[in-house]
Amino acid sequence: MVRLISIYVLADAVSQVYSGALRGVGDTLVTMLLSVAVHWLLTGVAYVALRVLHWSPEASWVAVVVSLIVLALAYYARYRFGNWRSRALRLSQLDEPALGSTPHAR
Fold first, then answer.
1. What one-character DSSP code corresponds to residue 83?
2. Is the pTM of this model over 0.85?
């Protein structure tokens, strides 16, 4: 069980890092949708595993770890191959003052 939890902690760390990076550049909608979808899927899988198939709690923990690994891989794929770079560029252009304009000009 300790080995399983150690995999969970590693997958959770990867998930937190990449979801934080995506949220930091403004890619919040896709990050939220991925998280909500995977967690609702996990809820259904855990219910079926525990109540319908009568698996042990340890087996349902395997489902939790697998779902977190899937979420971490989805965040990584979004970070590595996603369109967040163009969004971050557009946001950074909004922060730059226009040429020839002076702040606080009256």
1. S
2. no
